[in-house]
Amino acid sequence: MNKGMTAKGRATRHRIIVAAAMLTREKGAAETTLDDVRAATATSKSQLFHYFPEGRADILAAVAEYEAGQVLEAQQPYLGDLSTWESWQGWRQAVLDHYTELGQKCPLGSLTAELGKSSPQARSIVTSLYDEWEAALVRGVKAVTSDEEEAVRRRARSILAAVQGGVVMLQGTGRTDYLDAALTAAISPLQPVTAGTA
């Protein structure tokens, strides 16, 4: 979409996407209208359709792509190298800190509960996010265990589900202790066993 666009055009489009993302976090995708986006960005209807020819569907797909990037970026640099128990602990803390800071307005909840249902294109973006996230976790689990492939994939998926479940409960309650407990339990089997003394 950005191909052939001027730097100013890319900046304007990005500004609209970020504002629309904030609106979907606050109001939900179903309640966010083009008029809301126009008001939040001080753009005209013709401007919106210039950058998003399909209107609301295009904007929501762009928001899904933006939010997916935010979800993965917040986990770096740890997600890129989960090859030690220390890096797993760093990743867990980074995830916990990120969602504690965001509270009930988090992109992950918006992506899964709202944007993924808004269009086939947005659903595809959300699916790609989870595939990329799972692949990184799979690499990390492989690095610290000698488990078979299927066990590794199950572990990675259980960790991913722990994050998602904890975030959903955070959105519903405003409390991060569920996310904290779920993450701790999900990664604890990856901790190396230290030899005891006789």
UniProtKB/TrEMBL annotation:
GO MF annotations in UniProt: DNA binding
Gene3D superfamilies: Tetracycline Repressor, domain 2
Annotated signal sequence range: none
InterPro entries, alphabetized: Homeodomain-like_sf, HTH_TetR, Tet_transcr_reg_TetR-rel_C_sf, YxaF_TetR_C
Keyword DNA-binding recorded: yes
Domain HTH tetR-type: from-to ranges: 16-63
A Pfam match: TetR_N
Superkingdom: Bacteria
Transcriptional regulator LmrA/YxaF-like C-terminal domain: residues covered: 102-182
Keywords, alphabetical: DNA-binding, Transcription, Transcription regulation
Protein name: TetR family transcriptional regulator
Species this protein is from: Streptomyces spinoverrucosus
